[in-house]
Amino acid sequence: MNQTRVNQLADRIRVIVAEMLERRVKDPRLGFVTITEARLTGDLREATVFYTVLGGDQDQTGTAAALESAKGLVRSEVGRQLGLRHTPSLAFVPDAIPENAKHIEDLLRTARDSDAEVARRAAQATHAGDADPYRTPREDEDLEDDLDEDQDESDDDNDDNDDLDTGSR
Predict the structure, then answer these.
(1) Strands 32-40 and 46-54
(2) I want to staple 142 with a disulfide (CB 3.0 to 4.6 A). Which of 58, 72, 131, 138 is the partner?
(3) Quick one: pLDDT at residue 101?
(4) Collapsing DSSP states into helix, strand and coil, what is residue 21?
């Protein structure tokens, strides 16, 4: 099936599941759940619904159990609203986005700390040799004299090459 159509159906499944959990599923174990994404296989037989839960591990396990028990009700509503020949089976999977985001934030914090340390050390650093290790440009007159000498030498070299070219064989 066309991938665009599959993506549209997956997005529609995400919306339907989110509305069902908000309005019709009244399980007290269901915490602050957010449906982040839905993926649908190309043959439209299986849908994976990713979710996040605000809270601790106990809230995570309670929400997972509530989603499993409400799976049949949610699947029948998905089938009714989509109007497909075969209603896709649903699998609820906790989304790893919050853990990945926390890991990335930790890496960025470490990088900022090391950058601050490098900047602090650079501010305290002194030159290893002279204060100005770069060559200073020579005076313009000296430069012109050197250019004139180089030009004279290249003219002499060209004269020698001309003598060689005109010789007989």
Answers:
(1) antiparallel
(2) 138
(3) 84
(4) helix
